[in-house]
Specification:
A two-stranded parallel ribbon has the order 1-2. With 193 residues, the protein is mainly alpha-helical. The longest helix has 21 residues, at 94-114. The chain is built from 11 helices and 2 strands.
Amino acid sequence: MENKNMKTCEWPSEDKDMIEYHDKEWGNPCHGDKKLFEYFVLDTFQAGLSWKTILKKRKNFEKAFHGFDAEKIAGYREKDFKRLMNDARIIRNRLKILGTIDNAKKFLEIQKEFGSFDKFIWKFVNHKPIVNKFTSLKELPATSKESDAMSKELKERGFKFVGSTICYAFMQGAGLVNDHIVDCFRHKEVQRV
């Protein structure tokens, strides 16, 4: 952050990567399928872990998962699974790796059905970001009725690691909801993106 006097959300704390993610990316309305899939993969691996852990390994995930290319990942075979399980630079969780491969296949099915994943996922917020007006970190919810609906439909379509809490984290990161506190300089900024 350039100006230390500007108000900001508290959650990035003093961590340089978290501050940069907060200041430049978190909450920006995202409409590119490739970027939406990247968030989906990262949130799959975040389940049960901190976002800071995932953020530190983000570049490693990008390399290991062919730049988050859903078509390539959907085509992964046993050798790719073994390669990922042996890659110490990422989170080597068997179920999350298999879930990511399955999710890539389901992601492509949605693209085919709706024309884009963007059209499908943004329907849960009526195709425009929900702008919340929270004044402190304590007010931020872990889920919402929209994340509940998203989770339910994704599960019905065969997606893995798509509980309502993960869906809500995805919505925050991809800007389907603006959960910057109202005093944060980013609260207004992300509405102009």
